[in-house]
Amino acid sequence: MYKRKRSNDLINANNELIFQNKEKEKRAAELLIANAELAFQNQEKENRAAELIVANTELAFQNQEKENRAAELIVANTELAFQNQEKENRAAELIVANTELAFQNKEKENRAAELIIANIELAFQNKEKEKRAAELFIANEELIFQNGEKENRAAELIIANKELVFQNKEKENRAAELVVANHELVFQNEEKEKRSQELTIAYNKIKKAEEFLKEYIHGLEEMMFLTHHKVRQPVANILGISNVLTECLASPAELKKMVDYMKVSALSLDAFTKELTLFITDLDQKGKNKNF
Description:
Largest sheet: none
Number of strands: 0
Coiled coil: 19-53
Low-confidence stretches: none
Strand content: under 5%
Keywords: Coiled coil
Number of domains: 1
Structural class: mainly alpha
Shape: rod-shaped
Mean pLDDT: 82
Number of helices: 3
Distance between the termini: 34 Å
């Protein structure tokens, strides 16, 4: 009966060992999956870093373009100021010319009586007037051209301002994308740390379980060794004595001697049973103290 109970305990222990081995295999599979996931996350982080480098390069290029546009605008504004000054100078000349023409007309009215004498002078003055008119015509043509240039410059400035607004909008969008990417990287790093902690805890538990299994298997081997050597001898003695008991029925002294031998074997077997019980209890307590 006791031997059958021990056999059932050994079968249960083997089943538990099989179950723990399966759990260990599952843990190993989970570790492989977790490592694959960590590798994927590291690859994603590298891709994000590459995208950030490209975005920073593009932002630097756009800032350089904006500075170039600003320099062109400064040059255009300077040229416009110069053209406005030229226009003001031309207007002042026109005012002077108009004043001179008014003075000449006044002189012509006053000199009406002196037409015969003044004809040569008037012809000369008319010639000068024609030259002035030609100059005024040329000046008006130049002013028209300058106004057209000014309008073209104004149109270019409007286009440049629209382009600057668009570039600033693009820069803001890139900045928003960078903020989102940074938040995502922070989240992934936190998840990676959590995974690392979980893997560390799982590894420690598996290590403790392996240590306990080694101790438990060693204890079972020792228990089997003790059972084989310390149980076999008393049982063999008892069996041998039981075989010769029938031959000693006629001699009470021999019968008493055989009974004493059997008693010694029984006591030896009882002592081993107690020792085996203490050994199993100690092995079970070690397993409980592992706390895994």
